[in-house]
Every structure is written in structure tokens, then in C-alpha cells.
Amino acid sequence: MTETGTVREIKENLVVIAPDRSxxxxxxxxxxxxxxxxxITAENPKALPLKxxxxxxxxxxxxxxxxxxxxxxxxxxxxxxxxxxxxRLLFPKAGEGLFAFIGAAFLFIAAFIIYWARKKFPAxxxxxxxxxxxD
Length: 135
Hints:
Elements: E1 2-11, E2 14-19, H1 31-34, E3 40-43, E4 55-59, H2 62-90, H3 96-120, E5 127-134
Parallel strand pairs: 3-5
Antiparallel strand pairs: 1-2, 1-4, 2-3, 4-5
Helix pairs in contact: 2-3
């Protein structure tokens, strides 16, 4: 995932970037940026000669995005499978509706746990500055 933005602040190897608000982010449609947040902290591993006010491009590694997606989607799916299987073992004479209901309940419980954990311990964003778009 790549984004463009303006360099706001430089602290040693870290760069604070204000995302380009004219480009619509498909993920949140700039809702986070419009609400006052949305600054990106990125590393400058290539030691590019950055100055405040420059337009730069930052990228997040695919592995990091994949890891975040796995931690968001896998536990609820596993929660459903666990709830469905556990209900079949505990209530063998019950119908499919009960099994599906208990599986769905475990799905939502797992999703809430992941939501709560991400609120309490946000995922680390691993952005890096890839190139200078314009000075």
C-alpha cells in the first residue's frame, strides 16, 4: 500500500507526514483524516534528503498488511468453527440451528476480543519513505 503526503516534521530517522487529502483513500474514504487524525509516521531507511514541505511517497510492506489482515479475520472464523464443533459435542441431539447460533455467538465473541485488543494495543504501522515526489 502506497500513499503520498507532505513532510510535516523530521525527527532523526522518523518523518511525520500529512497524507494528501485530495486523493481519496478507498479504505476509509478519508474519514480518519477529516476527523483531525491521520498523520503517518514513517522511517527513512534510504536516507533521502528530506525537507519540511516536500511531497513524498510512503509504502507499507505487503507482509505487514497481510499479518494485520490475518489477525483481524482468522480469529473470528476460528471462533465460529470452535463454537460449532463444541456445540455438536455438548448437544449431540440438537438441531443445526442451535449449532449455527452457538458458532455465530463464538464468532462475534472472537471478533469483539480482537476489536478490544486492537483498541488497547494498536497495530504498529510500518511505513517507509520510498521516494520524493516533488520539492
